[in-house]
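hey can u run this one w/ zinc ion bound, need the structure tokens asap thx
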Amino acid sequence: MTPTSDYLDDLFSYINQAPTSYHAVASSVNILSGQRFQRLHEGEAWGTLGPGSYFVIRNDASLVAFTLAHSSQSGRPLRMAGAHTDSPGLKIKPNPMQLRHGSVQIGVEIYGGALLAPWFDRNLSIAGRVSWCRNSGPLHCSLIDFQRPVATIPSLAIHLDREVNSKRSIDKQTDLVPLLMLSGESSPPDFHTLLASELSRQDPTAADATILAFDLFLYDTQPLCRVGLNNELITGSRLDNLLSCHALVQALVQAETQQNRLIVLNDHEEVGSVSTAGAQGPFLKSVLERIYPDSALRQRAIAGSLFVSVDNAHAVHPNFAGKHDPDHLPLLNRGPVIKMNANQRYATNALTAALFRQFCTNAKVPCQQFVMRNDLACGSTIGPLTAAEIGVPTVDVGVPQLAMHSIRETVGHLDGWYLLQAMATFFSEEDERIRCPEIAL
Ligand code: ZN
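ok here u go:
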């Protein structure tokens, strides 16, 4: 089985249109709304939720969407899956404008564990959300995306640093300040004024806006691309973890099933997940409490449920194979990877791993296994945090990728499709086929 070109077109369009976690939620809502999912607001009463499809947004960048085929009063289990909407990158500082030597530059903070070297010499744009008002009126919040290259971080010429290829280090405060424009003035332009003008260009109803604050990031304008002699690779930004978000949203809406199912897309995974909308915050728990107001019924449903935490995994890099455990070498285009860690950096155990293996078998897709070498620190993801917050059996999986946290990452062209098949199968399984078995005592 191979991916349809429709799948890859859809994946490319989803990620290209989502330069930030805010846009990822907006793109997901577009898909859900087209499938008649109904929005619920946390500040309103929900009543008893009957069969139907719903979604909830928190802080514009995290989303829970679910389909109840059976009333929540039935106590039937949920097939749950999660991924994260954010990616490491450069976030614009509150007072960003600097003028040095005729160059207007824009100060940035580093968001998450970004691989910094690939940020040099890229054609960068700006996107995120802005808070604004008009004539001291009520506050508004809008998405914004400049959608064109407006900045770059030029490398230092090798002639000025002859040891750059052997001893390069990057000063995070001084080396990474993007160049926005050239100026003959004595002071830089006002950033809020520039933003207001761009906002009104994108949205005429925001004319005369006064910008009050913003959450803005730089991103690479180069779209996703098929690469390789046989087009078997995909390169692009934010594959970690928007490829997974896309698979979960599509599996949720495509599954032809009469089972209860839910996805959570969390922001802030790349900075530790401790926030109102992160996986170590109360968002999912609060939604579950409202779906199942009766705590005994809720616990019964959760005990029979399974959470599949989906986040990209490290494929073995042919130039650096020694960085992997020699018996656990995930390969590109060989299927989703089940991630295990004895110290609970991943929440997978023998029961949840076995269940996911069965989903892959039933979906007729391959799967692989990963553990980190003992002499390297293991990363983590939303799986262990969600498992600890909710108490739900969890498996950590993800498609294999190279160059994780680079501004341009690499995956195989089959693995997202394999993941989607496995997740659609999971969402369709009967109750007893998602329940962890117990040792007979
Ligand atoms: Zn990730």
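The longest helix spans residues 239-254. anyway lmk if its weird
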